[in-house]
Design a protein that fits this description.
Layout (H helix, E strand, L loop, with lengths): L18 E8 L15 E7 L2 E5 L5 E6 L10 E4 L5 E5 L4 H7 L4 E3 L16 H18 L8 H12 L2 H15 L18 E4 L1 E2 L17 E2 L2 H15 L8 E5 L8 H14 L11 E6 L3 H4 L2 H9 L3 E9 L3 H7 L5 H17 L3 E9 L5 H11 L12 E5 L6 H14 L4 E3 L6
Parallel strand pairs: 8-11, 11-12, 12-13, 13-14, 14-15, 15-16
Antiparallel strand pairs: 1-2, 2-3, 3-4, 4-5, 5-6, 6-7, 9-10
Bound molecules: iron/sulfur cluster.
């Protein structure tokens, strides 16, 4: 018998069962945009009857994929996040999906988000049951494995048994307590690392507390103390444990990390990079993600952007601009002027042109209740960006879906996309 594969047959009276265990597999070491199932980092794999499960370096379940015809699609899978949410990766027509979200797979969530697209795979019993039953199914098999199996496999199984669903749930609660609550939304650019970011909160609250926003905390902006940032980093090191070697990206939260200022950003980015040993990560190309705002973008000067540009990360900063139309901003209860939005947009173009390792991206809303001027003013600006300033940057569109006509919103989205000189994608709200 090969040392890394355990096959167990005829384990009970109901018929033959087959179990293949591979304790250590090497997945991709760089995040790719591909139209086939891909696994990142080093992981363990268990193939049991109709399910293919992978586990991270701590023995925590990471992905589940159904292998029989009942599973919705042979190239789709479930992934568990650090916040213990299950996300279903739907192929949804590959090329068409890429036009909408810039990715070949659409992440589908168990919670409500602003996606305009597709069905809910969690409506399917086989998907729900894969989540609720994976541990029981494995338990039944593990108890039958004899003492003669290789040590490497025994160690893996011990780790997996320790991380049963109740323990994973408890651990996620500790994770959220550690950083001060759940991350209600990750920057859309986090899609470039499949949302595998380690979150370090450098400031709470935001500047505007806009009326329309569903992810706000309702608190005013308040930077964290350096001591608190170090406390989080130490706790996160323990939380991610051995699996930290599969990470190389951080999110400096929360809703306006850029407003925390040059000193705190530099402090947190450097401390996290060193503590998480990103120099030796299995994954290539470290990335840093943040949100900024219409006020924090112009407030950041050359010294701040130069510092960010010189960090050992490629950095993405996402700014909520929402609209160039004043009536829309009023409707959204966003207390900023159209002039401020325009100058923030121009600053975005300038920063993207000037700093190689830094990319600013912008969000705009979309909704049936918004005026036509919102769409026309957005198209006017996006279709007239000087060509030399379009080499970097992305525009994300956040649908404000309030039960209206989805078809109209999709048509508006397509019109904006096709007339823009900058890439335009939908923003899918993913939490952590
Ligand atoms: S849109 Fe941004 S600034 Fe406005 S409330 Fe939400 S998080 Fe805060």
């Amino acid at each position: 018998m090969p040392n890394n594969i355990q096959e167990i047959k005829n384990m009970n009276n109901s018929g033959p069962h087959k179990l293949n265990i591979i304790p250590d597999k090497a997945g991709a070491d760089d995040y790719l945009k591909v139209s086939y199932p891909i696994r990142y980092g080093r992981y363990s794999e268990i193939r049991k009857d109709k399910l293919l499960l992978t586990f991270n370096q701590n023995g925590e379940v990471k992905t589940i994929q159904g292998l029989d015809s009942e599973w919705p699609h042979p190239s789709e899978w479930l992934k568990r996040t650090a916040g213990n949410d299950w996300v279903y990766y739907s192929a949804g027509g590959y090329n068409g999906m890429f036009d909408f979200i810039g990715e070949y797979y659409r992440p589908c969530f168990t919670y409500s988000t602003n996606a305009l697209l597709g069905d809910n795979p969690f409506d399917q019993k086989i998907v729900r049951s894969a989540i609720s039953r994976w541990a029981d199914d494995l338990d039944a098999i593990f108890t039958r494995i004899g003492d003669d199996c290789p040590n490497e496999i025994k160690t893996l199984l011990d780790k997996i048994i320790t991380h049963h669903p109740v323990a994973l749930d408890r651990k996620a609660k500790q994770f959220h307590e550690l950083i001060g609550g759940r991350i209600s939304v990750l920057p859309p650019d986090a899609r470039h690392v499949d949302y595998d970011v380690v979150p370090v909160i450098i400031a709470d609250g935001c500047l505007y507390n806009c009326g329309f926003c569903r992810v706000k905390t309702g608190r005013g902006f308040a930077p964290r103390l350096k001591g608190d940032i170090l406390r989080q980093i130490a706790g996160l090191k323990t939380f991610y444990d051995e699996d930290i070697s599969n990470y190389n990206a951080i999110f400096l939260g929360n809703h306006d990390g850029l407003y925390a200022g040059e000193t705190l950003i530099h402090f947190a980015a450097e401390a996290a990079f060193n503590a998480f040993n990103f120099d030796n990560s299995y994954m290539k190309r470290p990335r840093l993600f943040m949100f900024g705002s219409v006020d924090s973008l112009p407030a950041a000067d050359h010294s701040c952007f130069k510092m960010i540009n010189d960090l050992p990360f490629q950095t993405f900063i996402n700014i909520g601009l929402e609209s160039f139309d004043s009536e829309t901003l009023t409707l959204l209860e966003k207390p900023i002027s159209t002039d401020a939005v325009k100058s923030a947009f121009e600053r975005m173009l300038e920063v993207n042109h000037r700093y190689k390792n830094l990319e600013i991206t912008a969000n705009f809303v979309l909704g049936n209740d918004l005026s036509r001027e919102h769409i026309t003013s957005l198209i006017e600006v996006l279709s007239n960006i000087p060509k030399k300033l379009c080499s970097k940057g992305t525009v994300y569109i956040s649908p404000l879906y309030s039960g209206g006509n989805k078809g109209t919103m999709v048509r508006d989205f397509r019109e904006i996309k096709f007339k823009s000189r900058m890439p335009v994608y939908l923003y899918l709200i993913q939490r952590l």
